[in-house]
Structure formats: structure tokens, C-alpha cells
Amino acid sequence: MDLLKKTLLISLAASLSACGFAREKAAVYYLLKAEKIISQKSSAPADIEKAYGFIDKALSNAPDSERAVALLEELGEKAYKGGFERGGEFETAILKKAVEASEVNLPAAMALVTVLGERGDVPSIRELSRLLETRS
After folding, report:
1. Residue range 51-102, pLDDT digits in tens
2. From CA 89, how far away is CA 50, in angstroms rounded?
3. Treating both helix axes as pointing N-terminal to C-terminal, what angle do 106-119 and 122-135 enclose, rounded to 10 degrees?
């Protein structure tokens, strides 16, 4: 292998590894923004919706993030207590996306089962069960 090919391969490997680091940093950034909203005593519905968006972006960058799932659960409780009606559908959509994106994010799968169980959505639980069975 000539020197040019080796140099290109090394630079490609370095850029790909840095990409993972950048994605992780982006996830942390979005989680911090969501935490700020969650920690407020009371939040407007628009702020709660933004927090769901931040957690969604964090999970898109780091699909295995247990911290994001924990924050999503906290946000769900806050939204419920604050009377935010669309919290359940946001939480369900974000968790479904996280479970589909990552095979190892079991906290997201368990949280999704809990949310679906609370709603009594048995068909969606069956669908999730089939998805998880095909992965094992």
C-alpha cells in the first residue's frame, strides 16, 4: 500500500472517530438544555415541548443514552403534573425511535413498555415484543 492510501485511511479513521465524539458532545448539550427546563418550578407548554425536542435530538445523537431516558421520564412526570396533554404522545414517539435506533438501550424499551402499558396499548406492546425478539 502506498503512502497516499495509508494517509487517506488514517485521516478517514480519525475523522470518523471524532464524529462519534462530536455526536456525544451534541447529546450532552441537548440534555443540559432539557435539564434546565425540567428543573424550573413551572414551565410553559411551549417550553415543555422544546424539552421533548431536546431529548429527541440527544437520543438521535446518542441512541444508547440512559441519561436521556431518565430525563424523558422526569419530563413526562412534570408534563403530567402540569397538565400538558401531549406529553404521552411525545414520550411514546421518542422512545419508539430510540428503541428502533439502538439494540442495547434496554431502559428505553422498558420505559416504552411502561408508557404503552399505562395507556393500555396492547397491540403496540406486541409489536415492540416482536421487534425485540427479532434482535435477539
Report:
1. 999 999 999 998 888 999 999 999 999 998 888 889 889 999 999 998 888 7
2. 14
3. 160
Give the model confidence (pLDDT) of 43-55 as tens digits: 899 999 999 999 9
pTM of the model: 0.79
Query: DSSP of the chain, one letter per residue?
Result: --HHHHHHHHHHHHHHHHHHHHHHHHHHHHHHHHHHHHHSSS--HHHHHHHHHHHHHHHHH-TT-HHHHHHHHHHHHHHHHTT-TTHHHHHHHHHHHHHHH-SS-HHHHHHHHHHHHHHT-HHHHHHHHHHHHHH-
